Amino acid sequence: MHDKAKPQISKGHIICFSDFKLEEVPSHIINFAISIKEFTLLFLIIFISFKNLKLEFYPFAFIFSFSFIILKLFLVAFGATSKLERLHKIIEDKKWHIEHKREEEKKNLEEIYRAKGFSDKLLQDIVDTLSSDDNRLLQVMLEEEMGLTLGYFVHPLKQAFGALLGMLLSAIVLTIFYFLLPVDYNFFIAGAILIILSALIAGKFERTKTSKEIVWDLAFAIVLVFITHFFTMILTR
């Protein structure tokens, strides 16, 4: 039997295909992990900047944390909603094609299953069976032709809630370390732990190499911290 068919996809569908191809990864969990890392890194940038510039940090930290949480929630929810709307648009377009260009869709379906190894009467029976019901044909064409996975898109509010939990976890851990380790490096220790946790979660659910995720995330964080320190020290001279 041949490999799964790979029909040509128009340029108008390329972005949507890439957006939803891996939607089986739980978006709310990924947003949870990403938000941990983003909140921690931005917090460390602000902390280093204020410390080196000898400014009052903690009142600003509270304002920053609250503002960033609101901004992040909006961005996650808006981005997820935009993707969902685009998915609906793809479905409506394909539904229109099925209703108005049915024979063309049947030919596309026949090519897909011929490439899978079916032929002759069996191929015709499959095409006739699938095309006899509009909803079934719509689902098959979206999954086989467009590469979409239907019924798994995580609701925008659930994705935003995942991001909220990630940021709250970061804030709680940073606060705990501030009281447990009243030293200059308490936030950096907490930051390293949070970044490692973020990489572990992302690596597990995205099925990537966890050790590689940790190394790259920590390396990026260290470079970012040193750049911030360098520029703020220049400003104090």
What is the gist of this entry?
It is built from nine helices and no strands. It is mainly α and 237 residues long. It has one domain (15-100, 157-236).
What report would you give on this structure?
This protein is mainly alpha-helical and 237 residues long. The chain has one domain. Helix content is 80%, strand content 0%. The longest helix has 43 residues, at 58-100.
Secondary-structure element string: HHHHHHHHH
- The portion of residues assigned to helices is over 70%
Shape by Cα distribution? elongated
Radius of gyration: 25 Å
Cα end-to-end separation: 71 Å
Per-chain topology:
Blueprint: H1 11-20, H2 27-52, H3 58-100, H4 102-115, H5 120-131, H6 134-144, H7 156-180, H8 186-206, H9 210-236
Helix pairs in contact: 1-3, 2-3, 2-7, 2-8, 2-9, 3-4, 3-6, 3-7, 4-5, 7-8, 8-9
What distinguishing features does this structure have?
single chain, disordered N terminus
